[in-house]
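Class, look over these structure tokens:
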Amino acid sequence: MRVFRGLSQASPCATVLTIGNFDGVHLGHRALLARLCAVAGETGLPPAVLTFEPHPREFFAPDSAPTRLSNLREKLELIADDGVELAFVARFNRAFASLTADQFVEDVLVKTLRVRHLIIGDDFRFGAKRAGDFALLQQAGESFGFRVEAMNTVASADVRVSSSAVRDALWAGDLERAAELLGRPYVIDGRVVHGDKVGRQLGYATANIRMKHDRPPLLGVFAVEVTGLGDQPLAGVANLGYRPTANAVVRPILEVHLFDFASDIYGAHLTVRFLHKIRDEMKFSGFDELKAQIARDVETARQYFKL
């Protein structure tokens, strides 16, 4: 997938386009992307996505914006996995937010992205003060020569699939429900960096994974799978949180202990799949109590994987 950061240059070709934040790339997003790729195949044009950085709610209300499910890299990787060929990342700033609906259509959709077929969610609004809607896009399509279609809401167990629903499931520790809404396990990507080696002192060496998430949507101890170290995923147990017992931190960190694995993997970029929550993070009286609990967590995770 080719990624274009900013809208300073026009698309290299006409496009079949969809637009959205795509936070988490859940089943609703994936249905939209599947339709996008189907139309692209019918027309012979590349499937393209317009997304935003930062999330518009982070721009307008940074103190109350929801926790992100995916950072930009994770989102683009997931979008690429669903067959998208071109991704345009618009910098969401004051100038972009001030574009009128008509300016957005003519300057962004027509002149820059060269849209020929536009597919949007049924709740899509755009332009300053969210003045643009599906009816306006249909009128614009007649004027500028592009087709417009809207996708209906996707539901799971009679609940609308949304980033908010995924967030709620993750925070509640219901990773199985989150996976149903996403169509896959929830993942966090990151590079392995040097830590303080506390896990090694406790007898459980861990990979310290640098995250882009300052406010991850889940905390605790989990059974996980890790990809990026070979052809097959590796099973393990992960702690995501503030480590209240051993060298407490102010920014959450992700540490993964891989079962039956002892290689040097510093610098590797890994993807952690969160499969099952074992427990909440807890503060212990000391290292002995912490070590005993880690042993129980490892055993619980091994039982989950039937190892």
